[in-house]
Amino acid sequence: MPELTLLAQVFRRMDARIAPAGARSGVVRCPRCLRRNRVPAAGMGLPVCGNCRHALPWIAAAEDDDFAAVAEQATLPVLVGLWAPWCGLSWAARAVLERAALARPGQVKLVEVDVVAAPLKARRFVVRMVPTLLVLRSGRPVARRHGTPTAAELRTWLDATVGPEPAAVIPGP
Q: Which end of the chain is more exposed for a tag (fewer CB within 10 A), N or C?
């Protein structure tokens, strides 16, 4: 049992170093080895797979109180999807955004913001319709788009804003 106590202390310290206290985290599958990894919502640097060290997709949710830590302090360009739970087009856009983020591991961080739960952010970014998409660099908006894009439209917009999508990764053994 002392080994388990030691492991718990090590992982607690690692988590504190990667993400600030109270930060939420999600589980994503590595595009290369297909292992599941826990990725903190906020943190510095780039999330990588614990097994093969490949860059992981970074998808997080933020509200008014943690938006600065999750989106504005990110080192990667941040794709912000401002959506509303009552809007069907928002749900469709979220699916397209998540597929785009999964296709660009290590290149972009997707942050989803529910405008009902985060009214201050909706006011700050002057959201007149949902879904509204923003790209942030160093916490500042550099591109904006309204409505639900198709996958091809989103890819073209992100290529122009963030850079081209990386080549496809073939999962290894």
A: C
CA distances from 159 to 48, 88, 106, 154 (A): 22, 26, 14, 8
Phi, psi of 31 (to 5 degrees): -70, -20
Grade residue 44 by pLDDT with cuts at 50, 70 and 90.
confident
Instruction: Using CB atoms within 10 Å of the CB of residue 56, give its burial: 0 to 12 exposed, 13 to 18 middle, 19+ buried.
Output: buried
d(CA 16, CA 120): 28
Contact 19, 41 (CB under 8 A): yes
Q: Treating both helix axes as pointing N-terminal to C-terminal, what angle do 151-161 and 88-103 enclose, rounded to 10 degrees?
A: 60
- pTM score, two decimals? 0.80
Give the Cα separation of 163 and 106 in Å (integer).
12
Q: Is the pLDDT of residue 2 over 90?
A: no
Task: Provide mean pLDDT across the span 163-168.
Answer: 70
Sequence-ordered list of residues with C-beta below 8 angstroms from that of 115, at least 6 positions apart, any chain: 82, 83, 84, 121, 122, 127, 130
Asked if residue 131 has a cis previous peptide bond (ω within 30° of 0), the answer is yes
